[in-house]
């Protein structure tokens, strides 16, 4: 399965670990090409880089283009900002893109109680509870 890995760029190192695991399972995972600058940075440096990329590198459209022709996305919804299984605004957009493209949406962890929980539920994501073998 060709599958995009999405989530907060604060977790870029975890994204790369999961990408390796998905390759071992026979998938073709991908991240945004803009991920490369995030490794080894502090959370504060990552926040600045995210803003720079959104304003100057057209980060949202860049990933939209990468999603074309893929089978789905895996949302890495780790705890962040005191919210369990956090899904931020950009990740929510990417979920919407996948939904409109009729791609599968997998959530690594259960759906968080957030302001747009109803909309997430409406996209019918598949919660895999950390088990990457459930991605099919």
In short:
With 136 residues, the chain is α/β, with parallel strands linked by helices. It has a single domain (2-134), classed as 3-Layer(aba) Sandwich (Rossmann fold), CATH 3.40.50.
Relative helix content = 25-40%
Task: Using the coordinates above, name the CATH class.
Answer: Alpha Beta
- SSE-based structural type: alpha/beta
Task: Please name the CATH topology.
Answer: Rossmann fold
Q: How many individual helices? A: 5
Number of strands: 5
Radius of gyration in whole Å, from Cα?
A: 14 Å
Can you write the helix and strand succession as a string? EHEHHEHEHE
> What order do the strands of the largest sheet run in, or round the barrel if closed?
2-1-3-4-5
Poorly predicted spans? none
Second-tier CATH architecture: 3-Layer(aba) Sandwich
Separation, N- and C-terminal Cα atoms: 7 Å
What is the number of domains?
A: 1
Main sheet makeup: 5 strands, parallel
Report the principal-axis shape: globular
Q: Which percent range describes the beta-strand content?
A: 5-15%
Could you report the average pLDDT, rounded to the nearest whole number? 92
């Amino acid at each position: 399965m060709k599958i995009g890995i999405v989530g907060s760029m604060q977790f870029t190192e975890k994204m790369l670990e999961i990408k390796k695991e998905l390759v071992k399972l026979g998938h073709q995972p991908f991240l945004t090409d803009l991920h490369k600058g995030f490794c080894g940075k502090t959370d504060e440096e990552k926040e600045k880089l995210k803003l720079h990329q959104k304003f100057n590198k057209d980060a949202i459209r860049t990933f939209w283009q990468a999603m074309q022709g893929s089978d789905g996305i895996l949302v890495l919804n780790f705890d962040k900002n005191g919210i369990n299984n956090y899904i931020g605004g950009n990740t929510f957009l990417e979920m919407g893109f996948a939904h409109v493209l009729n791609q599968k949406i997998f959530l690594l962890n259960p759906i968080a109680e957030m302001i747009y929980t109803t909309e997430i539920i409406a996209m019918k994501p598949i919660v895999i509870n950390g088990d990457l073998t459930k991605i099919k």
